[in-house]
Amino acid sequence: MTTLTDAELVARCRTGEGEAWNELVERFSRYVYAIAVQAFRLSAPDAEDVFQEVFARVYEHLGRLRNDDAIRPWIAQLTRRLCIDKLRSSGREGPADTDDLDLGGFDESLSQLDEAMTVRACLDEVGESCKEILDRFFCRDESYRVIGEALDLPPGTIASRISRCLGKLRAAFEGRSDASPTSGVR
Amino acid sequence: MTGYDEEKIAELLRLLPPAPEGWVRAAQELPAARTEIAAIVARAEADIAFRARVVADLEAALEAEGIEARPSVVAALRSRLETD
């Protein structure tokens, strides 16, 4: 299921396949979370509201998506809009003047997160062991010791493995960028 | 070519930590929750006694029906029953 393109995954979700929906949520959960928490700096309760509302709307409106490949930009825009609504509704209760939200700054963060999603999608091309070690170290912030224990690897070898895997990931990312600079497809 | 070095690739990876597990699970359970909610609302509309039990104590009514009172289901049901 993880090797499906975004468009294939959307098509399967539309048929009501439960596993496909689980994968869609898994695939985009970090993206939605990062937009809410990093780009818009929402509090945890507000971010959770936005997170659940995004997936509720995706589930509800998936049938209306005209281009299945466009799921990622659609989710990004939906999340962005809901975050802005949340900031505006919070602003009514607080001192901040949210009519003057600096959307340029948010959009720059969004663009970076979009690039991060493309890098993340390339993890599927570097093999399961590399994917896991890179995810644990860079995304989950686990120490060499924790990674070594979890993967049953000598701690002394972790750094070199990470370096090797990062090289593979970079090559995969550059290969993808060469083939299709704007591709959002896994 | 992007010209990105490995440090930049690592920096981009760091931007996407996992979302809290509970949030992900709740979103994944959405289709099942919607089905449960639709069934409960339909029954509450057809059965006045059931509706009264649900309105009086939603969590207890769900448990009595063998439905797990997950926060997402409870919140959605409250909202549906208030607007009906």
Give an overview of the whole structure:
The complex is a heterodimer of chains A (186) and B (84). With 186 residues, chain A is mostly helical. Chain A has 2 domains: 1-101, Rna Polymerase Sigma Factor, Chain: A (Orthogonal Bundle), CATH 1.10.1740; 126-186, Arc Repressor Mutant, subunit A, CATH 1.10.10. Helices cover 72% and strands 0% of the residues of chain A. Chain A has 8 helices and no strands. In chain A, helix 2 runs antiparallel to helix 3 (44-61), helix 2 packs across helix 5 and helix 3 packs across helix 4. Chain A is globular, with a radius of gyration of 18 Å. Chain B is mainly α and 84 residues long. Chain B has one domain (21-83). Helices cover 75% and strands 0% of the residues of chain B. Chain B has helices spanning 6-14, 21-28, 30-46, 48-56, 58-64, 71-83. The chains are: A mainly alpha (186), B mainly alpha (84). Chain A binds chain B through residues 16, 18, 21-22, 25-26, 29-34, 38, 48, 51-52, 55-56, 59, 112-113, 115-117, 119-120, 134-135, 138-141, 163, 166-167, 169-170, 173-174, 177-178, and chain B through 1-2, 4-6, 9-10, 12-20, 23-24, 26-28, 30-31, 34, 72.
